[in-house]
Amino acid sequence: MDAPLRLIASNPLDQLARTLEALLVVASSPLSVQELADAADDDSERVEAALGLVRERYAEGRSGIVLEHVAGGWAFRSAREAAQACARLFEKPAQRNLSQAALETLAIVAYLGPCSRPDVARIRGVSADSAVANLVERGLIAESGRDDAAGGAIRYRTTPLFERVFGLESLSQLPRLDDVGADAEQIRERLHEVAEKRTA
Amino acid sequence: MIVRELELDLDAFEGPFDLLLTLVLKDELDLREVDVAGIVLAFIERLAARDELDLESCGEFLVLISALLELKARGLFPEEAAELAELEPEAAAEELARRLAEYRRMKNAAAWLRERLETEGARFFRLGPAPLAPKVETPLGPQEPERLAQVIRMLAVEPPQVSLAHMALRFPPVTQFLERFRSVLRRRSRFDFDQEVRELPRIEQAVAFLALLELRRSGEITIEQPAPFAPIRIARAGKDNRDEDERTTAWTLRSA
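Structure tokens for the assembled complex are given below, as produced in the milestone run.
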């Protein structure tokens, strides 16, 4: 019993790691290394090293609380094995019943954002007003300036909540969208056929 | 109902429909910012407020609103209108294919997001508003306790008594004026009502007027007023003064 305790206590970063745990348990959104360093009054490198320690302690399968790197920061979340119990008690309002239209709009904003409602409408071919309003209400996207063009439509980008809900460290973690290949070729050919008929 | 005068209260514009049209045609208002559905709602509300269906207004409105919608639609896709109109069929097909491919990519991305939602659904985390930054306190300058007392004293004064005089109006009895007018008529055959009551407060003037009507009803006097708001002239009824005297006497006796 004594030995492991002494082992932890002997780590020079242990004190800092405990402070980080405290900060993270109080936080309601991910904290960046800089924020943690400022609050703990320590330097970023030591904080990162200490975070490694905390992450080891709060790892999936080891603890009911898991430390994850998400939305550009660090945050505690529940372990996956406790998901059912959590679901019985807690709601997930941001992601419940996301419609196809909302998901497509979300994808467009995530990949091309910041972009305006007309931008979304151009790609989807239908008005994006209600889908955008719905996503704003859920807090998955937010306003981010205006178009430079006349009229200056409001532009939107995804929020840190989006990254958190989808478990992304940042938007760069979104998969690359390769061309759809065969499908697109087929469409192109058929359109060309139609075009030839019209010119004939 | 005149469609052009339809009052609008939209985010981008407030005023009559007619002005909105003018501003849009002059390019002073960006149609893309205008909520056309809001205009339609305003019109329908206006229509519902009236019982009858005004077909002419409806027709006019339809024409105007559809023109507005077309303008807006074109405004939303400015380059497209120019691009697609000038494109050769082949190039147009190419362009369309490009757009369809773009949409396909986004559809795939949406599918990925949905999948991700399922795999990441087992993660629960705490959500809350952003923590409040510590409030900056603005310290007050040094204060004199005496000044504070002064201000409190100012505020602590007994509030002025509100006059309730108007709550209980005292009406003099109508009979008082009946007597008064009769005695006047005994001395003079005619008099001017306004002159007679000029000195009285307003409420008593009203009672005096009631007395006047009472006397007219019993046929004791005649009332003349050449025009609205002109002076009211009162005269003893009947040419025969003796008759009048008798009647007065009779009345006096009766009342005695």
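The first helix of chain B runs from residue 17 to 25. DSSP finds ten helices and five strands in chain B. Further analysis is deferred to the final report.
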